[in-house]
Amino acid sequence: MRRRDMHQGPTSTIVSPQPRLHQNAAEIQAYGTVTHLLPLDLEEPVRLEVTERLNQLLADTMTLRDLYKKSHWQTAGPTFYQLHLLFDKHYGEQAELVDLIAERIQVLGGLSIAMAHDVAETTRILRPPRGREEVPVQLSRLIDAHQTIIRELREFARRSDEIGDAGTNDLLVSDVLRTSELQVWFLSEHLVNAPLVIAKEAPEKAGAA
Ligand SMILES: [Fe+2]
Questions:
Q1: What are the extents of the domains in the chain?
Q2: Is domain 40-191 in CATH 3.30.70.20, yes or no?
């Protein structure tokens, strides 16, 4: 018997005010797996496929969320205040979606991707430079990121319906897709080249005096 066992008995019975620091142990579930049995009436292969695709969507949504914060901080020019606020509003909405998607994965018995390194390796959204870019470029980048996600969403929504996962289908359509479509509208309207102060004169009608 080891010295500690002789004097203290099994560790689980020790009563002590000392926090047990620096603990470590093997993982209890590997990434990319789902728990075998859940009372959801959704078979394991369905939950495996859906959680894998949800993790792709999660990585892309986390990247879009962070792209909004980068844009919020780095935007410049005459529309600074308006865009600074708009980008942060969209950031907050994307952050809520991140939580909904991540927790859907957990509900289905899977494991959500979480850390920046793993997200960076997984996302399909193009990496922006660290430096500051012009407003039209910021807007274009955000719209392109939305488009990547929307394309993925439409196909995934069809598939989730086909394999009977109505809960995921509802999340994809009602929450993620609808939010993304609305945000794209708000961004795109900033790229319409409309006069700000002086209206463009209408061309004279042919034959007018
Ligand atoms: Fe801020």
A1: 40-191
A2: no
Distance from the alpha carbon of residue 196 to the mean position of ligand 1, in angstroms: 27
**Mean pLDDT in order along the chain per 10 residues (209 residues):** 48 83 96 94 96 98 98 97 98 98 98 98 98 98 98 98 98 98 98 92 71
How many beta carbons lie within 10 A of that of residue 206, not counting itself? 5
CA of 141 to the centre of ligand 1 (A): 20
SS3 33: coil
For ligand 1, the distance from its centroid to the CA atom of residue 88, given in whole angstroms, is 7
> Quick one: CA dihedral 102, 104, 107, 108, positive or negative?
negative
Tell me, in angstroms, the distance from the centre of ligand 1 to residue 85's CA.
8
